[in-house]
Amino acid sequence: MKAFKVHENIIFNEPNPNAEPLHVDQHGRILRFALQPGQTVQEHNAPNSPVNIVVLQGQGHFAGGDGQAHKIGPDTMILFDPGENHTIKALEEPLVFLAILHEAPNPDRKGD
After folding, report:
1. DSSP assignment of 14-29
2. Domain for residue 46, yes or no?
3. Could you tell me where the beta strands, DSSP code E, fall in the chain?
4. What's the CA gap between 68 and 1, in Å, rounded?
5. pLDDT computed for residue 59 by the predictor
6. Quick one: pLDDT at residue 73?
7. Which one of 23, 53, 96, 97 counts the least CB within 10 Å of its CB?
8. Mean pLDDT of 1-9
9. pLDDT over 80 at 66, yes or no
């Protein structure tokens, strides 16, 4: 068993969001994203995995394949299908969320 304190030692970067791998193995990965107000995760997708997001703190606009932004806050889970383009923007306060993917990172791709 492994345990992670997801609310501790959160790192924010300027000018870009921070994506910190909390766990990576051959089955997938868990990333913790930390965005300052106004920061954006540009449109991207994970071609071979659903992306499961759990918002820990703050609020953000999350847009999926339909391009419609939805205001999402803490304790909410969002699911993106494999290959579904998505973008994320932090609103007035810092935004922290976990992204859970069911594929190992591909060293040839950036931004999965």
Report:
1. SSS-EEEEEEEETTEE
2. yes
3. 18-25, 28-35, 40-44, 51-57, 60-63, 69-72, 77-80, 86-90, 95-101
4. 38
5. 98
6. 97
7. 23
8. 93
9. yes
* Longest pairwise C-alpha distance within the chain: 38
Length of the chain: 112
What confidence score (pLDDT) does residue 103 get?
Answer: 77
Give every strand in the sheet of 60-63, ordered side by side.
Answer: 40-44, 86-90, 60-63, 69-72
Cβ-contact 34, 106 below 8 angstroms:
no
Give dist(CA 51, CA 81) in Å, integer.
7
Q: Assess if residue 87 is contained within a domain.
A: yes
Residue carrying structure tokens 């345990």: 3
Q: How many CB atoms lie within 10 A of CB 66?
A: 9
pTM of the full structure: 0.89
Domain count, the chain: 1
Residue 7 covered by a domain = no
Q: How many CB atoms lie within 10 A of CB 23?
A: 13
Supply the pLDDT for residue 111: 47
| Contacts (Cβ under 8 Å, ≥6 apart) of 112 | 44, 46, 47, 101, 103, 105, 106
For the segment 29-39, what is each residue's pLDDT rounded down to a tens digit?
999 999 999 99
